[in-house]
Write a structure and sequence with these properties.
single chain; 104 residues; mainly alpha
């Protein structure tokens, strides 16, 4: 929601508030992500967590480079945040389908 609202922010204060909401939501997924790795991988949790961390860093690299490209192509920063909101929505759907081995 924060990313979608960010595209409509009229002031810097509103943009900062929307971005704060988006980061809060993102940070709330950190702990469950690491714990889920331990739940599904058991003694291999370190390897699974490392793989998750590597993919996350690759995503950060792609994201940082996509921002100026999308802004230049569309003339607005909103396109980047809309794409990010769509990708986050897909991530939410993926998380809803995740099950630990015991729950499967």
């Amino acid at each position: 929601m924060g990313l979608l609202l960010l595209t409509k922010a009229a002031t810097a204060g509103m943009a900062a508030g929307c971005f704060t909401l988006a980061v809060f939501g993102s940070d709330m997924t950190v702990s469950p992500g690491w714990v889920f790795c331990a739940d599904i991988a058991g003694k291999n949790a370190g390897s699974v967590s490392g793989g998750m961390n590597m993919i996350g860093n690759l995503g950060s690299f792609v994201s940082a480079n996509a921002f100026p490209v999308l802004a230049a192509a569309t003339g607005s920063a909103s396109a980047y945040f809309l794409v990010a909101a769509v990708l986050n929505s897909i991530g939410i759907l993926c998380w809803l389908g995740m099950r630990t081995p015991e729950a499967a």
